[in-house]
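Researcher: I'm preparing a figure for a lab meeting and need a structural model of a single chain. I don't have an experimental structure, so a prediction will have to do for now. The sequence is pasted below. Please return the structure as C-alpha cells so I can convert it later.
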Amino acid sequence: MKWQTKPRAGRGDTVLVVTAHPDDEVYAHGAAIATFSECGARVVLRIASGGEAAEPGSANMSTEEARRRRAPRLTASCATLGVDSWDWIDEGRWIDTGSRRTRDSLTSANPGDLADAIASHIRDVSPDIVLTVASDGLTGHPDHILVHHAAVSAAHACRTPVFASYLLPDDITRGHALLAGFLPGVTVGSGRMTGLTPVKRAPFEAPPQAGAIRRTALDHYAPGLGTLPLGELVASHPGRGDGLLLRAVYDAVGWHVERYTAVT
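Model: Understood. Here is the structure written out cell by cell.
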C-alpha cells in the first residue's frame, strides 16, 4: 500500500471512517465523505456506539430502543453523504451515555479492546485510508478522544494511513462570535472545544457542493439543524451544546471546509 501524505481517494479506492456516535460522520467527515463518494471511492463507516444518549426521549426508553430509533437517522445521513455501507464496531458492547462513566459506556471502554475491534474491521474492509477525529476529539468529548487513540493504534498496527479531522482555535472563536449575535450572554457548548494547531497538516479541499450535501445530511438528526438559517435555528432548537456550536463554526468557516492532519 502506498503511504499517503494527504487524504485522497477516487474510483477503486476504499475509505474507512471510524467515529464514536451517529452524527459524527457529518460533523467531522461529511465534506470528505461526500467528495470521495462523488469521485467514485467506496466509503465505509464504522461506529463505536449507537448514540443512545442523543436520541430524543432516551431517558424514558431502553438503550436498545434508543439505538433502534437512532439507526434510521444514521442510515438516512449515510445515504445523503454517499456512504456505501455502515455498521457498528460491536453492536451494544459500548453505549453512548453522554460522557457518564458506567459499566457499558463508551467513555469507560478499554482502549486496547476498542483498538482490537477496530483493527478487525480494518482487516475486513482493507481501506486505502482511515479517517477519524484528532487527538482532542474535535470537540473535546471523551468518547471522541478514545476513538481517536483506538483508531490510530489499529490503523498503525494494520499499516494503513490515518488522517484526523480537527478545527483551528480561530474556527471555534468565529463560531462563538456568530452565536453571540443571536444569543448574547448565553454560553453555548460544553467548554471542551478549543481547537488544535497541528504541525503535520494534510491539505484537503472539497467542492462547495459537498458543503450543501453535508448540511442536508445533518437535518436527518434534527429538522433544520443543518439547513435552517442560524437565527431561526437558535429560536427553535432546544440544545445549547457542542452540536449547535459546531453548526455555527461551519456557518462561519464554510460547510465544505474540513481540516485534516496526518497521524504518524
